[in-house]
Design a protein that fits this description.
This protein is α+β, with helices and mostly antiparallel strands. It has one domain: Sandwich (Immunoglobulin-like). It contains four helices and nine strands. The chain has a four-stranded antiparallel beta sheet with strand order 4-3-6-7. Helix 1 packs antiparallel against helix 4. The two termini are 15 Å apart.
Length: 194
């Protein structure tokens, strides 16, 4: 009888821990640019396209991987993002890679490389973080507007402004906390089966 009570107490503790773990597991780490990292993009709209495949939420972290000394990351307001200006930056300049920037608020967030010409060449990122991560339907992609053609004759597209909008859901990879939940569930099941 004592073993059954101990097993039930342990099972309850595991369920509470699993629920707490799931509550925290909403946080996702987004590697900006995927395998390409944070660099001057080869094609127009590289970061716009990348962002459209992600779902961002408060509590997530952006990881910028870049060659230190030739790139950096600066968070800026819309006007500075739109003009590729380092004026009015928000917080510090991140000069060492990898730069891990937590998303602490909902709304539009803008990031640029502060090295001369890099932002103008497309090394800039705009993301939308919804006020709530739960919604009945997937959010739509952020609005975009064309910019002036680049010297090579191609044009790029950047978000049109600080209007709200969402991103298309991400890759669906299993997070570490989700795997931990599976492991805890297995442990719980083993308590009742053996």
């Amino acid at each position: 009888m004592a073993k059954a009570a101990t097993s039930l107490s342990l099972a309850g503790l595991i369920l509470v821990a699993a629920n707490l773990l799931l509550a925290v597991s909403a946080a996702t780490t987004h590697t900006v640019g995927g395998n390409s990292g944070w660099t001057i993009p080869i094609g127009a709209n590289n970061y716009t396209a990348w962002a459209s495949t992600q779902t961002f939420a408060v509590g997530d972290t952006l990881v910028f991987n870049f060659a230190s000394g030739i790139h950096d990351v600066i968070q800026v307001p819309w006007a500075s993002f739109n003009s590729c200006s380092t004026a009015n930056q928000i917080g510090s300049t991140f000069s060492n890679s990898p730069a891990r920037l937590p998303i602490t608020t909902a709304g539009m967030h803008y990031y640029i490389c502060g090295f001369p010409g890099h932002c103008d060449a497309g090394q800039r990122l705009a993301i939308t973080v919804p006020a709530s991560s739960s919604s009945a339907s997937p959010p739509t992609a952020a609005a975009t507007a064309p910019t002036a053609p680049a010297p090579g004759g191609s044009s790029s597209t950047v978000p049109s402004g600080p209007s709200p909008g969402g991103q298309v859901p991400g890759s669906g990879a299993i997070s570490v906390p989700s795997m931990a939940f599976v492991a805890l569930s297995s442990l719980l099941a083993s308590q009742f089966l053996f």
